[in-house]
Amino acid sequence: MEHTITGKLNPITIGSVKVETPLFLAPMAGQTNHAFRNLCREMGDCGMVCTELISSQAIHYKNQKTWHMFDWTPDEQPFAVQLYGSDPQMMADAARLVVDEGATIVDINMGCWVPKVVKKGGGAALLGDLCAATAVVEAVVQAVNVPVTVKVRSGLTPDHLTAVPFARAAEQLGVKAIAVHARTASQGFSGSADWDIIRQVKDAVSSIPIIGNGDVKTSADAERMLRETGCDGIMIGRAALGNPWIFHQIAYELRTGLAFPSPSPAERASAALKHARLTVETTTIGERQAIFELRGQLTKYHLGVPGAAALREKLVYAESLADIEAIFEPYLSHEQAEYELA
Ligand SMILES: Cc1cc2nc3c(=O)[nH]c(=O)nc-3n(C[C@H](O)[C@H](O)[C@H](O)COP(=O)(O)O)c2cc1C
């Protein structure tokens, strides 16, 4: 099958950590649990995964709900644990704790724009205060002996793009990689990502890899991001949901110039089942609660067969793993898609 777009995905190093294929699963709250991270790795070419953001303040105050986010296992290596907060000491303490619990990398969130995070000075709020941001970064870098990375947005607003001065400061402080989501905080997820900021950040640093992020859905997008920005790696978020093959697909297509054969309905149903089973097996919040959280994640698996709306409807009422199995198992022998998936 012709595809024709090719591109180079060179291994990169983040401090002492080698990432063979520089395709990163983006941290996504409520989505990137242990099961989903594992699935992305298992499908191939997902070079690095990251937990969802975890509050350093919640860790400090020993908030019970936070512990179920400590769901990683040693076989996920290399992986990053993402922390947020504005108090340097709390961030440093939280970093030490997650490293003691096995984190390969500590990632600092400087992109989350939701009010509950920003209002306390964490996440994207730090992009508006270089002084506060550098205090947090410095404290975390000094607290741990593993690489520290940062995930930023372009800035707070289109009139206040701070990613470039921030990246320069972070590099000086010993940060080992920066991921840039090419939208401002005020944009949320609206509009399209303006990748030029990734190029500007790449030009501004000299010794650390820059990971581009925002709106990569296909190998053509990935090739264009690499070419236009010079970034060293690519981070993928929404396009991976219900689609854990995307990393392998992009790597395969860029390496070979051939189109990746679309997974069959049976393969898609099998991945959804694996996602559900591993979530239930490893959850610390009980099967019923885990299934409530899974419903939304599983609706993202499009099987390529008629009746998708009915399938989603059934998922909304699923209360147990047995319910999920009853929904997906009938498709396990379905080898041919009946319509094209975008
Ligand atoms: C449901 C959801 C949850 C997210 N949670 C986080 C998070 O916990 N930490 C973070 O740094 N970014 C988070 N993001 C942002 C993504 O990591 C990523 O930067 C953004 O989705 C843009 O990439 P994409 O276009 O590939 O999706 C989240 C995004 C989504 C859609």
What does this protein look like?
The protein has helices at residues 34-43, 56-60, 88-100, 115-118, 130-143, 163-173, 196-204, 219-229, 246-256, 265-282, 287-298, 308-316, 321-328, and strands at residues 12-14, 17-19, 23-25, 49-55, 79-84, 105-110, 148-157, 160-161, 177-184, 210-213, 233-236. It is of the alpha/beta class and 342 residues long. The protein has 2 domains: 12-256, TIM Barrel (Alpha-Beta Barrel); 265-331. Strands 3, 4, 5, 6, 7, 8, 9, 10 and 11 form a 9-stranded mixed beta sheet that branches. The mean pLDDT is 94. The structure holds flavin mononucleotide.
Tertiary shape: globular
CATH architecture of the largest domain: Alpha-Beta Barrel
Write out the CATH superfamily name of the largest domain.
Answer: Aldolase class I
Q: State the secondary-structure class.
A: alpha/beta
- Tally of helical segments: 13
| Number of beta-strand segments | 11
Radius of gyration: 20 Å
Number of domains: 2
| Average predicted local confidence, pLDDT | 94
Q: Let me know the largest β-sheet.
A: 9 strands, mixed
- Find the CATH topology of the largest domain: TIM Barrel
The portion of residues assigned to helices is 25-40%
Strand residues, percent: 15-25%
Regions with pLDDT < 50 over 5+ consecutive residues? none
Order of helices and strands: EEEHEHEHEHHEEHEHEHEHHHHH
Q: Which ligands occur here?
A: flavin mononucleotide
Distance between the ends: 17 Å
CATH class placement of the largest domain:
Alpha Beta
